[in-house]
Amino acid sequence: MISGDRQFDVLAVGEAMVLITPEGRLSDADTFRADVAGAESNVALHLAALGRPVGWAGGLGDDALGFRVRRRLEAAGVTVFAAPASAAPTGVMFKDPHPGGSVVSYYRRGSAASQLGAGFAKLLPLADARVVHLSGVTPALAPGCAKLADAIVSRARSCGTTVSFDVNFRPRLWPADRAAAVLLRLARAADIVFVGRDEAAALWATDDPDSIRSLLGGPHTVIVKDGAVGATEYLGAESTFVPAPVIEVVEQVGAGDAFAAGYLSAWLAGSPSADRMTTGHSVAALAMSTVFDVPTP
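The structure corresponding to this sequence follows.
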């Protein structure tokens, strides 16, 4: 484990968007709440709430929404490293609450985050972080973003920073036949990997946890998640399964990001395997208790 004398416990790199959630159905509501969403910014916000010194890096438009994202993150205690101001807009995400779970609509094509390239990695304080966290959303945004993900992994390795990678396959962004090889390469290059059984089945035609661990090979630690059933951590040759708690779910969107944040916080504390998994489940349960990606006071 890396020594604790670095400025940040985690630097999360990826797209952050403004999240618009209505009170009621999107088509009929008169009142809306604006917050921040995005896999990596969710992780950063959860970690900040857990008391971890954390940074977020990504692209924001030179617009009111970009300012709003920055203000929200900084108010939560997250240090922001935004790319030079872009004329491209900040992305927006809308939720439409339904009894069976929200329907989500994204307006992110051509966003400031999608304009990022490998050069952005050189601007990031990767040597100042114990862990850099990425997800499979970033390489899906644009070819330049895929190069950025590779560059971050390479630079993190050169400065001794642990790489955490959440596969986070989003079929609405790219098809499995195009995503499979890219996400497998990034997962194999990481130190800690989070992957769902359903994702592995869609990408690599296997949903067996042992087979997934064998397929990934390289990472020191692999966490295979199985929704409401639980999750299995593979640490070297050892494996630990911890069932998910039985809870009343309001919404599942953002639960994976919350799990990753809880797990990483416990990992940074040097907690044993079962405690790391339990903390991940607990933070995920908190996220699933609300329609917002990250609960706020």
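The chain has nine helices and 13 strands.
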